[in-house]
Specification:
This is Zinc finger, C2H2 type. This protein is of the alpha+beta class and 189 residues long. Among the domains are: 30 residues; 40 residues; 31 residues; 31 residues. Helix content is 37%, strand content 11%. β7 and β8 form a beta hairpin.
């Protein structure tokens, strides 16, 4: 019989598939910081920590996973005069925003009283209206958790019938009538 040998540790295997599966253990994954890992999942877990440490705010020491997120954050430390801001055009409103979309949302909800379309609950007897799909989905979970009887299980097709395969595996001379009694004798042949 021919054996397949691992080139790194001289372990022997009967098939090339087993050998390749084994050789994956010798593979190393390297992070940008030059640290090595044997498992891909360990590298991914490390990168979550490692990359956050690369982008740190010099003002408040917060960590960020990308340069873009850090740049956006640093703008929050600048004064209103040193950055591009979007000021609310309505009189007696001194609100300002870093992003135009936030200003638009403010104007629509506060000054124009434009209501976002609400999502109605579809369960019978519930008249709740929800503003976001995420809150709607969370709300549906409350209905499903409390009303388990809404979706009853189908009755078993073999309910009340003798399970012959189980009986045969236990003993050959037991009948269903014997199983219904409290004391059952099992004679194995």
């Amino acid at each position: 019989m021919r054996a397949f040998r691992c080139e790194k540790c001289d372990a022997k295997f009967l098939t090339t598939l087993e050998k390749r599966r084994h050789e994956r253990r010798h593979r190393n994954y390297i992070c940008d910081c030059k640290e090595t890992f044997q498992l891909w999942s360990a590298l991914l877990a490390h990168k979550k920590i490692c990359t956050k440490q690369n982008f740190q705010c010099h003002v408040c020491d917060k960590h960020f996973s990308s340069k873009r997120n850090l740049r956006l954050h640093i703008d929050t430390h600048l004064s209103k005069d040193d950055r591009t801001v979007f000021i609310c055009p309505y009189e007696e409103c001194d609100r300002y925003y870093m992003y135009k979309t936030n200003l638009t949302s403010h104007i629509n909800s506060i000054h124009k009283k434009v209501a976002k379309p609400k999502i109605p609950c579809t369960f019978e007897g519930c008249s709740k209206l929800l503003g976001r799909m995420r809150t709607y989905e969370e709300h549906l979970k409350t209905h499903l958790a409390t009303n388990k009887t809404k979706f009853p299980r189908k009755p078993r097709k073999d309910k009340g019938q003798c399970k012959k395969k189980i009986i045969d595996s236990l003993a050959r001379n037991i009948t269903c009538e014997n199983l219904k009694g409290e004391n059952v004798e099992i004679n194995l042949k």
